[in-house]
Write a structure and sequence with these properties.
two-stranded antiparallel sheet
């Protein structure tokens, strides 16, 4: 176990550090994070919890290779949610998202998102731990925004969503970054339609054609 922790430290700090850019002198280079085990909701796949700190400088890219094509997101460690960014990096490094499905797609005037990261079904099948929200109150969720999904305050885990149109929702979801390539893949998912699930309405449910993350990796 100790060796695995060391491998994670070296990969995340050294490897992702290659993509960092300078921050302002006033910003702390590292912040503390709290990843709390959830024994009543164990991990859907065996993973090690992220380290209890996160870097706050620079950006790096993660590419989700969907069955509809690759979608590259640029994650911002210098934003309001460095712990959430470190968490997603850890899960990608441990292949948590590989060979998983995205169970929810919405396309209403209020909410237009693809929700992924739950391995069993909507809001079921997380990493076996939770961590607090990181929001400034100024968050907006326009097209291309990538943010954490949750089941209430302080319940972040592996679930995230990508906005394909706009999400008119409160600033209660930690923003990770933005899509920089592949929005056309999201558009094709939406065009293929939605299987509505009560009580969410006719524009909220499972993608009519299953959406799968075949692999997630760093870079393009």
């Amino acid at each position: 176990m100790k060796a695995r922790w060391v491998a994670l430290v070296l990969s995340v700090v050294a490897g992702l550090g290659l993509c960092s850019v300078p921050a302002t002198a006033a910003s702390a280079p590292v912040v503390r994070c709290a990843f709390t085990p959830t024994p009543d909701n164990p991990a859907a796949r065996p993973v090690v919890r992220p380290l209890p700190f996160a870097l706050t400088r620079g950006t790096f890219d993660v590419t989700f290779r969907f069955n509809y094509g690759p979608v590259t997101v640029r994650l911002d460690r210098a934003g309001a949610a460095p712990c959430a960014v470190a968490n997603l990096a850890s899960l990608v490094l441990q292949h948590f998202y590989d060979r998983s499905r995205c169970w929810r797609l919405t396309d209403s005037e209020r909410l237009g998102v693809l929700q992924c990261g739950d391995l069993y079904e909507v809001e079921k099948g997380g990493p076996g731990y939770r961590f607090p929200d990181e929001v400034s109150g100024a968050e907006t969720y326009d097209r291309g925004t990538v943010a954490m999904g949750n089941q209430g305050p302080g319940t972040n885990g592996s679930e995230f969503f990508i906005v394909h149109s706009f999400a008119h929702i409160p600033a209660q979801y930690s923003v990770l970054g933005k899509v920089v390539r592949g929005m056309d893949a999201l558009d094709r998912m939406v065009a293929d339609g939605i299987v509505p699930s009560d009580p969410n309405g006719p524009l909220d449910g499972a993608p009519k054609h299953p959406v799968k993350i075949e692999r997630a990796s760093f870079g393009w």
